[in-house]
Amino acid sequence: MVKLFIDPGHGGSDPGALGYGLQEKNLTLPIATTLRDILLNEYEGVSVLMSRTSDQTVSLSERTNAANNWGADYYLSIHINAGGGTGFESYIYPGVGSPTTTYQDIIHDEILKVVDFANRGKKSANFHVLRETMMPALLTENGFIDNPNDANKLKSSSFLVSIARGHANGLARAFNLTRKPTVLYKVQIGAFRIKSNADNLASEAMSKGFDAVVLLRDGLYKVQIGAFTSKENAESLAAKARNAGFDAIVFIE
Q1: pTM of the model as a whole
Q2: Which of 141, 204, 232, 253 is catalytic?
Q3: Which domain holds residue 160?
Q4: Which of 75, 121, 143, 242 has a CB 3.0–4.6 Å from the CB of 137, allowing a cystine?
C-alpha cells in the first residue's frame, strides 16, 4: 500500500495568494480533492490522507506532523503562485537526492504534458513542508493567480481537473501504481432469442434518438443503448429510455 499525503495549501483564515477575484485556498482544495478521487477510484494499492478537506485553518506544523505520524510514503503540497510571473514550477528541499529528485522529475513532467502552462523549471527551496517532512516531498506552484492569462485558466473548473490529472499521472508513474480494472455500466432495453426482434427494437430506439446496437451475448441478441464508466450517467440514460417507453436496465460488465 502506497500512502500519499496530499496538502492543499492555505485555507480558513489564510487565503493564500489573491488575484482577479480568486483566492489560492479555493483553488488548491478542488485540485487536491479531485486528485484524491482520481487516485482512489482509478488505482489499486493506494491510500490517501489530506491535510484539509474543507475551508479550514491548518498550521504548517499540523500538516507535516499529520503526514509524519501517519507514516506517509510521499508528501505533495499543492499551491498557486503570485508575484508577477507566469507558468508552472515545482520545489524539493535543497540538497536532497534520489528518490526525491526522481519523483520531482516524473511528476513535474507529467503535469506539463496535460496542463497549458509555461515551464518555469524544477527548483528547490527551504519551505517548511519540504524541510519538516520525514518522507520525500514536493511542492507544486500551479500558475500565477495575479497573471491575467494564468488566472483565466484557473477560473475554469475543467482546467483545475487537468491539473489534478497531471498530478495523478505523475504519482501513478512515480510509484508504479496499478490501474483498477475498468468497470462499465451498460444500459440494455431488451434481449431476444430471435435476432429480427432485437433488430426491430433497436430500430425503434434509434427512431427515438437513442444509439442502439444489437450484440450477441450468452445466446441472446441484446439491444444496448449505452455504456459508461459512471453509474450515474448510465442511470440517467436508463431513466430517459424508460420515459420513452423502453424497459431499460443497467448492468455491470
Answers
A1: 0.75
A2: 141
A3: 2-179
A4: 75
